[in-house]
Design a protein that fits this description.
Protein name: Adenosine deaminase
Strand order of the largest sheet: 1-2-3-4-5-6-7-8
Cofactor: Zn(2+)
CATH class: Alpha Beta
Structural class: alpha/beta
CATH superfamily: Metal-dependent hydrolases
Largest sheet: 8 strands, parallel
CATH architecture: Alpha-Beta Barrel
Distance between the termini: 21 Å
Family: Belongs to the metallo-dependent hydrolases superfamily. Adenosine and AMP deaminases family.
Shape: globular
Number of helices: 15
Radius of gyration: 18 Å
Organism: Mesorhizobium montanum
Helix content: 40-55%
EC number: 3.5.4.4
Bound molecules: adenine, zinc ion
Strand content: 5-15%
Amino acid sequence: MTDYIGLPKAEVHIHVEGCFDADDVIRNCEQAGIPLRAPREKLFEAHDLKSFLEMLDWLCGTFRTREQLAVTAYKFARRMAKSGVRYADVIVNPTHWPHWHRNIPGMIDAFDAGFAAAEQDGYSPVGLCVSLLRTQSSKDAIELVELLSRTRHPRVVALSIDGNEAAAGRTGPRFAEAFRRAASAGLRRTVHAGESSGPEGVRDAIELLGADRIDHGVRAIEEPALVDLLAQRRIPLGICPVSNIALGVYPSLAEHPIDALRKAGVPVSINTDDPALLDTTLEASYAACAETFAWDSETIRQLAATSVHASYADTAVKARIL
Ligand code: ADE
Ligand code: ZN
């Protein structure tokens, strides 16, 4: 029986917004006099990506104070420890947070305080990927990169894009200049693509945005030449199999392309996306995939090692994990 918790691994595709405790959200609502969107058992209920992203806006809107953000970051690190995650790149999208999106430096500082306190207490290090929403403008994107370049907070490791590709049309050309500037400023670049878009979104992420990692990327499987490109250039995919089933990208794990991508030589890793909202854990995702695809222990160990190589941890941290 494989010990999925003990496996040395990183989580490289997970959102702060997907890791809330229901108790914290309810407490925020009580403190601020906000009516709950649904009874406790249905607080995290959504049926597709669109309703899921709307729910994120509501959940994040309950977080008003610096202390609430710092506690969220601390609890994030504690959640990672429970799954045996030795390093995490976590995505935060300021557009979901109505009380913070005009104070992004304050938001980063508050999360940083929580991650730093967690590390002091022995939890694993965390890097922050600050995300654009697909529907933002080219001007918004450049402003975010300028802000990140000016403030150069050591917690921030990457620029990211998330949100619904289907709602925003082709976004590669719109964000190309911002991504070029992010690369010049020394930021890494990770892009959601090939989840709510087809393979063309993955190609744009590589060719127009210079992504050095793709979040999801699974629908690249529909274009064999693109699969070859990912394999040849060793561009990692941060795949979230349980999320893809929950949000309707594939009907079942058996029909999910993670194993076909792995066999084609693409560096794939297993991640959770939004584990609290989707009621899953990283170890459960590993176990479900291993069972579905009959992976042996060496294959599982390699997938876990790929997650560490694909992460934005610095080389000393990677060496310590592997
Ligand atoms: N933000 C949080 N989860 C997401 C997902 N699965 N796709 C796009 N944006 C997201
Ligand atoms: Zn995601």
